[in-house]
Amino acid sequence: MVRIIMHGCNGKMGQVITGLVADDPNAQIVAGIDIADNRDNGYPVFTDIKKCDVAADVIVDFAAAVAVDALLDYSVEKQIPVVLCTTGLSDEQLAKVKECSAKVAILKSANMSLGINTLMKLLKDAANVFAPAGYDIEIVEKHHNQKVDAPSGTAIALADSINEARGGEYEYVYDRSQVRKKRDKKELGISAVRGGTIVGEHEVIFAGIDEVIEFKHTAYSKSVFAKGAVEAAKFLAGKPAGMYDMADVIG
Ligand SMILES: NC(=O)C1=CN([C@@H]2O[C@H](COP(=O)(O)OP(=O)(O)OC[C@H]3O[C@@H](n4cnc5c(N)ncnc54)[C@H](O)[C@@H]3O)[C@@H](O)[C@H]2O)C=CC1
Ligand SMILES: O=C(O)C1=N[C@H](C(=O)O)C[C@H](O)C1
Hints:
- Its EC number is 1.17.1.8.
- Its main location: cytoplasm.
- The chain is 32% helix and 25% strand.
- It has 251 residues and is α/β, with parallel strands linked by helices.
- It has a seven-stranded parallel beta sheet with strand order 3-2-1-4-5-6-12, with helices on both faces. Strands 8-9-7-10-11 form a five-stranded mixed beta sheet, with helices on one face.
- Strand 10 and strand 11 form a beta hairpin.
- Bound molecules: 1,4-dihydronicotinamide adenine dinucleotide and ligand LZUJQKHR.
């Protein structure tokens, strides 16, 4: 039985995971952390992470970037591995994640779905065919109107995947409104759309002369992320310090 602390337990993802784990004989949420204490989850909820004294094997995090520093300090101090799913982290926070991973196991992934993690692998091959042939690369993501960060963590991760395969040759461009010049070949444009209840859509476009190749992933419910997060939690419990990602879980 894997004992989970759910960080951000009263948010949208926290609630989906609470429902999923309730039906899982091999996992249990033993405590939740959330500044909003407005639900009866059937486990204790702490509004201040420092006050959480419940023994656990792993923390699953879907909260807010502002909460990540205290979360990392807690996981290092208590030596509890953390599945870090919150997006929109600053460069300083990303450096702190790396530093803390020398002391505790951290699995960081901007998207827990099997589809996106497979797409990341496929994009490396696609980029190595289309980039040398001069195709322009653009990413468009769409999310619900409650999302605070833009572009999505997934859009950045997809771009990073392409850029890694191409030796870092691309510069990301988020806004073309302030310049009057043609697109450079080494630009990778990333655009964000926000509206309604869109769960999450990501399109990667390779545009060449007279042909366009598009890779598209659509999440139809938050369950795809929740399932991946619970799988990741089971994988990470008991692992030694280090940086892990969903590729380690999926294999
Ligand atoms: N990696 C992935 O697959 C996915 C990542 N996400 C990311 O997860 C995060 C949360 O997403 P949602 O559940 O949709 O957001 P949400 O806003 O519905 O839930 C966030 C929860 O965190 C709580 N919270 C905020 N500040 C806090 C603090 N300082 N300490 C403790 N709790 C705090 C809020 O009260 C809220 O209940 C976002 O960054 C989102 O981008 C969302 C879906 C999938
Ligand atoms: O906020 C969301 O909802 C999501 N956030 C993640 C991101 O920023 O990439 C993952 C998913 O697309 C849903």
